[in-house]
Design a protein that fits this description.
Two copies of one chain form a homodimer.
Chain A: E1 5-13, E2 21-30, E3 33-39, E4 51-54, E5 59-62, E6 64-69, H1 85-100, H2 103-119, E7 122-129, H3 132-142, E8 145-152, H4 166-177, E9 184-190, H5 198-211, E10 215-219, H6 223-233, H7 237-243, E11 251-255, H8 261-269, E12 273-276, H9 278-283, H10 291-296, E13 300-303, H11 316-331, H12 339-353, E14 371-374, H13 387-393, E15 400-405, E16 408-412, E17 415-416, H14 421-437
Helix pairs in contact in A: 2-3, 2-14, 4-5, 11-12, 12-13
């Protein structure tokens, strides 16, 4: 079968089940799917029509998967830092959201976030926010792959002033977005067990089940949350959600910091997917999730940046670095979360969390061509004994040269092919000017 | 006085004692020194000969100061990760050093490290290693500013096979390097209280005093070290060094993780300078230094990357991010090490640690022009409410466009002006090939 794209002359870090690394490798793509992976010259066939991409000796790897984001929050990047969580939320983020978040600002800020993610090698994200159809429009325009959840919360929220209508609005989103694009997977994003009643949690989960989609929820993020829920009913946040019947293999439990061994057993038994967000958890002083213990228990875990207002970027390379180092220093063990484990979490792990492990997350025959090329001919990536070490401990988002989603080249020579990034940045700056005026 | 360089059209983050930020600012330079800092148009004088550098609305700031490095160790970047400290050192790093470290490899790997540091906005570093005259040659070639210490250790070391000659070799280095360049400040780097006898520690400190130079030492890095020293004499590592008379305002105490309130009081009383190395401390699972408490106690503290074999890069931007986030999550307090505190530590704090606070570390009239420009017209730095937040939480080394040391432009449009980076990388790759063959 003649290929229409051939990526050649690079180290292929496949992240397949054997974690094969092909030193001088080549990937062939036809109609957006990977048709072969192997050493250069493996296939004597002629591909006269194929576009050849020379990786220049760099690393050819699966696109990174960001399992937790709030894309429109790039509008508030750096608006408020170094504050107590309650002050940050109540005095800065919530007022800014209530005044400045609308369909237009959600779309423009989501475009900015997609541009940032693509330029730093992320090809798939799991998002949850309000006006999520605006996020969907931006993601569609960007060409990325995504799981997108309309927010459900028992407070007046942007686009959902009446909490009584939250489930209806989420249903409208699911109905409107499903089947609009093979790259977009609608979902339900229920904010948390401390901002939603048991009734809302159950209704939101029932809605996700009805549509057969992922259910995303923040849980066990802070000690305050854990204390509040335990104080109310004697159960940990995880045990409480389990009691409600929320936890299953379609649930993405985000954060999972304040979990004990029993909670980890519940998460493992129910096949719950976990999104680990080290930078946000550190910056907001929420704590360090026991991610090594969760992985050991067989829990599917991916890595996420969280909204970039609490990070303050969407760079999955720095997130991998932070995940590895945070786990080591918290457990006082250099061995936990080694580079291969972290890279796997940020690719195949993320694909599993997103429910897309058959489609993306690795470079394997039959999968969609969600592939990035990292340029390693730079001082900070020289010499190279081990490409995986470099990807986790030394590379930055800015080392990504080429990004392809579903076989479509979205970033070439480190620049966006289709998105007008200057126009997008100008649009966001205009809105930010209004935010600054209050 | 006519300027010979004018940097204009940027946000000047001065890091002067008032932490002044000039929104649309300009910096004028004459003969390598800053002659004025203020808003664009402050000075109606004519400067017909001046080279004008347009910062394009980006951030004009003091060059970053890396207070702890082992420059030649870039040769071992990513050679071995995710190992117990003892295995990492004894099975990988020490054997590789003993076989592959020589005058040639020290020089070529130090050139690589200088290239990496300059490209990521570091203008001054404090280094300690063996064959330090090779490091000095490389740093001189790069145009950077540095404090460079010949290593002293009571074991056979590269270039110093007989420990009995360690002090003599350090003395020869001091004598040979002093007064060779206004940018290079020789120093003594005594490895640690657990690898040097009390006699060696005292002799090395006496030598530093004799030459009036900085004395650098790793101390209180691991719990094992603290236990060993306390076991031997009942004193903490800090109290032990104090008892020996090692601690004063010319001593740079690197790491200082395993310190208690009494140790912090000693460090403060003696005016000791501290280098905080968060990424290395996390990756080697050494622990988290109480840097906020040390700053509160009035201790001069700077930030360092450590050797990039335990990091694995020399990017001070990611180091700032990590410093802020590590302190927050360890203390469970979002407020500690806010962005301004961290940026100050990485600039003026570092200058004080290096003993160069009169010369560098801030953009002030009379200081040397050690200045960098950060390009903020990128998605991950948009919008911008607060330039200081961006520098700590969102910028990366690759956002640095222009780097000037002592008024000499070393990086322009993100590329090195004088160093042949391709040739340097090729040289290091050749040596790394030999390292790989064992």
């Amino acid at each position: 079968m003649p290929a229409d794209i051939i990526i050649t002359n690079g180290i292929v870090v496949t992240v397949n089940p054997h974690f094969d690394i092909i030193k001088n490798g080549e990937v062939r793509i036809k109609d957006g799917r990977i048709t072969s992976v192997g050493p250069v010259g493996m296939d004597a066939g002629h591909h006269p029509e194929a576009q050849v991409i020379d990786a220049g000796g760099g690393i050819i790897m699966p696109g990174l998967i960001n399992t937790h984001t709030h894309l429109p929050m790039s509008l508030f990047r750096g608006l408020a830092d170094d504050l107590m969580l309650s002050d940050w939320l109540n005095k800065h983020i919530f007022p800014a959201e209530s005044k400045h978040i609308n369909e237009h600002t959600v779309r423009i800020a989501s475009l900015l976030s997609c541009a940032e993610m693509l330029l730093s090698g992320t090809t798939t994200c799991c998002d949850g926010y309000f006006f999520e159809s605006g996020v969907a429009a931006a993601v569609r325009e960007s060409g990325m792959r995504a799981v997108l959840g309309q927010g459900v919360i028992d407070f007046p929220a942007p686009g959902a002033p009446d909490p009584a209508r939250n489930i209806d609005i989420a249903r409208e989103f699911l109905a409107a977005v499903k089947d609009t694009s093979p790259l977009i997977h609608p979902s339900v994003f229920c904010h948390s067990p401390y901002t939603c009643s048991g009734k809302t949690l159950c209704a939101a989960k029932a809605l996700a089940n009805e549509f057969g989609v992922r259910f995303q929820i923040h849980v066990a993020e802070t000690k305050g949350e854990a204390d509040m829920i335990e104080g109310a009913g004697g159960l940990s946040p995880i045990a409480y959600l389990d009691r409600l019947g929320i936890l299953d293999e379609n649930t993405i439990a985000v954060h999972c910091i304040w979990v004990d061994d029993v909670d980890i057993e519940i998460l493992a038994d129910k096949g719950v997917c976990v999104s680990h967000n080290p930078e946000s958890n550190m910056k907001l002083a929420s704590g360090a999730a026991p991610v090594a213990a969760m992985l050991d228990a067989g829990i599917l875990a991916g890595i996420g940046t969280d909204g970039c207002a609490s990070n303050n970027d969407l760079d999955m390379f720095s997130e991998m670095d932070m995940a590895a180092k945070l786990a080591k220093v918290f457990s006082m063990d250099t061995i936990v979360l080694d580079a291969q484990t972290v890279l796997t979490a940020a690719t195949m792990g993320g694909a599993s969390v997103a429910g897309l492990s058959e489609i993306t997350g690795s470079i394997e025959k039959g999968k969609a061509a969600d592939i990035i090329i990292v340029n390693t001919a730079k001082p900070h990536l020289t010499p190279m004994y081990d490409p995986v070490s470099h990807l986790v401990y030394a590379a930055r988002g800015s080392d990504v040269d080429t990004v392809m989603v579903n076989g479509r080249i979205l970033v070439k020579d480190g620049a966006l092919v289709y998105m007008d990034v200057e126009k997008i940045m100008d649009g966001v700056r205009k809105v930010a000017g209004e935010v600054m005026r209050g």
